[in-house]
Amino acid sequence: MSRKLFVPLIGVFLFLMHSLGLPTEAFAVKQRYVFGGGPAGGTFQVVANAIQVYTPVKKIPDFTVRAQSSAGSIENLRRVNAGKSDFAVVYSGHLYQGRKGRLKHDSKVYNDVLALGYLYGAPAQLVVRKGMGIRSVSDLEGKKVGVGNAGSGAFANCELFFTHLGLWDKIERNAMGYNDAAAAFGNRQLDAFWLFTAFPSGAVIMASQTNTIDLLGIEAAALNSGFYQKYPYFTKVTIPGGTYRGVDEDRHSFQDSALWVASADVPDEVVYRLLSLVYSEEGIAHMVSQKNTFRDMSIENGVKGIVTPMHPGALKFWKEKGVL
Q: Domains of the chain, with CATH numbers?
């Protein structure tokens, strides 16, 4: 049963109890909304956890938000569309492709996932070991590469980029999460590993503690191959030198926007209330306290990177803020 039907039925039930003079307190229902995060070591899970533990959200009397781990962006898109999650983090590009039935190996149209707001920019990061002669993406041919969790945005974007370059079938692919990849890299079971997450990444920091690492600059490969023309939702980004130990110079890459999304079945008022709390001055300060990645969250950036339909509750909120 969808929540749009379930909630009114509960209201009718409580009204009848009240009309009969029966106590209703014991029958009060506190709705539970599931927030899909991501794998351990990634920023998606930090988002879900941060919103779950934010005190004003915890004090909402009639519903709760519960974080739930997932493989990442693609799984989140599917779970929200199927009603298995109510909120989640999904990359703008995957939401765009999903609504048009253009996901890799998946022609299903995901129309029940609606955008709420911009969270942060997620850049591609490709970690290698210094002194191994890997100076460009093409040098990874024949190498062992961690490509992200199957079902994650990292995996999907790695496949997208490497397929575009004609390298996907020329590397030894290892599907695993960030922390597992960092550990395997540290044990020399991988020559490189790919991340698609905000910097600094805890997994990259972990890898740099046991190895002399480097980041590959991948913007040149994207530019020279027409990657931006084919996938216009990606934008250029610079990872500053000094972000990671041993990487002293800037590295140029590309990024997608990580968006907060919701099921079309989530009531407008629930979306509006949560946005009002999380995008308040105090709410953004809380998010930044959980991870500095969220420093770009603001009212001004609230609809940044959104190229797909928004939830009515979000439209109401952002229009009132003068953003739309």
A: 3-120+258-320 (3.40.190.10), 123-256 (3.40.190.10)
